[in-house]
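Extended Data, panel c. Modelled sequence:
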Amino acid sequence: MSVSLRPTRGGPAFEPILACYAASGLQTPYCTDKRLLKEGSTQVWRVTAGGRGYVFKVYSLRKAYGRLQDAARPPERLYDEVVRLTRHGVPFAPVIGTARNSTSTTLVTREISGLTLHQALCHGGIPSDRVEEALADWGHALGAANAAGTLHIDPKTKNVIVTDSNKKAKTIFLIDVDGLRRLRWVPRLVAARFLANAARHMFRSCRDHPERVTPATLDRFFAGFSQGIGRGAPIEWRHRVARQLSPWLNQINEPLCQQARLALRVDGS
């Protein structure tokens, strides 16, 4: 990457991180490791600098902004949106800053240690009460974002980090910002549609262990969402999601279908 990165968000402490990332080599005292995690029009790098881990998302100006929907949300806007939502209690991974040059623009966030919610549901490794707490906090985060006028169109369990210590104040952190869409108002029908997407990803994550999503688990998830959005009772959101997922439930394997119907309290008819 060119060394001509120009900071566009973030304080003075952000500049040495950019300098170490933009350098052609790793022989700098500040940067100790740089690893490419994802290739494509949007590259994702993990950088260790000053004893801390950072995630760099590098967006190609030519490719990423060729589509109208991407032109309205450059990293600078995503940075501002994450800062705004954090003030509303949505637990995003801390954003450090943004920068750009003639070919790309970059968003930098702090790396969060822990397992993704997908890994916790699929492979275990986290106590069940911790997973229930994480799902409740995820529901609350989605609801709080909706209440603040923002919709997350890609609510995947792979984009939620469950922190690896009970001593941390927050149970989860959201690490995906590309799915944020700022609206003046999020109608209930739209909120229910994307809440159903979150529930669908939850069930898919535990398709090999469907017993890990229980009625009590979903009770906490919907209660968290209801509290976060400040509208509707948990049972109302459960019924809305059940109606949204009804066609999908008839297409999945029988053990997962039975457990999903049980968790959603849907009749077999």
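The domain at 6-110 is CATH 3.30.200.20 (Phosphorylase Kinase; domain 1). This feature is highlighted in the accompanying rendering.
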